[in-house]
UniProtKB/TrEMBL annotation:
One GO biological process term: GPI anchor biosynthetic process
Location(s) in or outside the cell: Endoplasmic reticulum membrane
Keyword list, A-Z: Endoplasmic reticulum, Glycosyltransferase, GPI-anchor biosynthesis, Membrane, Transferase, Transmembrane, Transmembrane helix
Protein name: Glycosyltransferase RgtA/B/C/D-like domain-containing protein
Provenance organism: Candidatus Daviesbacteria bacterium RIFCSPHIGHO2_02_FULL_36_13
């Protein structure tokens, strides 16, 4: 099975490179709608269709990996991914490069490898997790759907998506197989990768509840004690990062309070409910020119959010409760900042519902697959050429 997974990955990865290469000709004007492209990406001397996979958030992770959190507001980005880049970057550096300004190209190479290696590992764990409840055909279809998802190219970019996917899948897989200490450890690592990792805490609590209810685990047993320990371990990643921020920057919530500095009109103080967020987008549609990139981005964010949210709600009675809580949390929490910005990327975390979608669609699955692939080609082309997608 691993050979098949590796083959799927290679076909997908080659497809991304070909799309990125063609995008350079189809979209000749580079958008450059993010900072540090010249000092973190172009310095690699790689072609745009390669270094473009380090755009937007990627440049921040590269700078943190090399210089730590010395840039103001860089604390918005959680530490595990850049820490891994730093640890595994044992390649010889360019000693003539001024690292106060430029990022050594070796950080790009290592980050790119890390993201893609974790994606391959994620596909393997995703298959194993899906096989607990579904047959081989559904599990394989779920992997294909994951790689075909319109924003799946972020898994192969210098983003935390593939690392977080791997750790989340591991946490759920270990929980489903009654290895709650390991579920807690991988959950803790996930919570050191993204704030969404904290959602594994209620998910693991529900897993324990389901297992106690089905008598797989007995109260007052060693297995139950291990499960409780695993749950207590899970939020450790975020807690340690908050402690680090408190010690070094006097603000344990700096990852939250720094969010408005990155645009997207995010609120870090007030909680904005979903109806108000939808109202804001309706106003955008009524005032922003139809042919503008701003309208396209807003429409993309709105459609992705609404469609995925409705799909998950419709699957409520069929999806495992722990999965449902995790997915809904990943979909709703970002909207509380008052915007749907980045939602086309955040909805990737609905992957736990993919087996049910594949099962429900049957032979019609191929039409969804075709639509997703076309949309991924379009969105990747924009991303590579420096235009905001998610």
């Amino acid at each position: 099975m691993f050979r098949k997974i590796l083959s799927l990955f290679l076909v997908w990865r080659i497809g991304l490179f070909l799309t990125a290469l063609l995008a350079s000709f189809i979209i000749p004007v580079y958008g450059n709608s993010f900072p540090y492209a010249n000092v973190a990406l172009q310095v690699t001397n790689l072609p745009n269709w390669v270094w473009g996979f380090g755009g937007f958030d990627g440049v921040h992770y590269l700078r943190i990996a090399q210089n730590g959190y010395n840039a103001e507001f860089s604390q918005a980005f959680f530490p595990l991914y850049p820490v891994l880049i730093n640890i595994f970057n044992v390649l010889p550096k360019n000693l003539t490069l001024d690292t106060r300004i430029f990022v050594d190209p070796t950080y790009f190479y290592i980050a790119f490898l890390i993201s893609n290696i974790f994606l391959i590992a994620s596909l393997w764990i995703f298959y194993k997790l899906t096989r607990i409840d579904f047959n081989h055909k559904i599990a394989t279809g779920s992997m294909i759907l994951l790689l075909s998802f319109p924003t799946a190219f972020y898994f192969g970019a210098i983003y935390t998506e593939s690392l977080f996917l791997f750790l989340t899948l591991c946490s759920f897989y270990f929980a489903r197989t009654n290895k709650f200490i390991l579920a807690g450890i991988t959950g803790a690592l996930a919570s050191a990768t993204r704030i969404f990792g904290l959602l594994l805490v209620p998910a693991l609590i529900l897993e324990v509840y389901l297992k106690v209810k089905s008598r797989e685990i007995k109260l007052k047993s060693k297995e139950f004690i291990k499960a409780v320990i695993g749950i207590l371990i899970a939020p450790a990643g975020t807690i340690i990062y908050m402690w680090y921020l408190k010690i070094n920057f006097s603000d344990p919530l700096y990852f939250l309070t720094s969010q408005p500095s990155f645009g997207a009109e995010r609120s870090s103080t007030d909680i904005i409910l979903l109806p108000q967020v939808f109202y804001r987008y309706i106003k955008i549609f009524a005032t922003v020119p139809l042919q503008s990139h701003a309208f396209f981005s807003a429409a993309l964010e709105f459609i992705f959010s609404v469609v995925i949210l409705i799909a998950v709600i419709l699957l409520f009675k069929k999806i495992r409760l722990s999965y449902f809580i995790f997915i809904i949390g990943c979909l709703i929490i970002p909207t509380l900042t008052g915007t749907l910005s980045s939602m086309p990327r955040y909805v990737l975390m609905s992957f736990l519902a993919f087996p049910l979608i594949v099962s429900a669609l049957g032979n019609s699955f191929k039409y969804l697959l075709f639509s997703f692939i076309i949309l991924q080609i379009v969105l990747l082309s924009l991303f590579i050429r420096g235009y905001w997608v998610a």
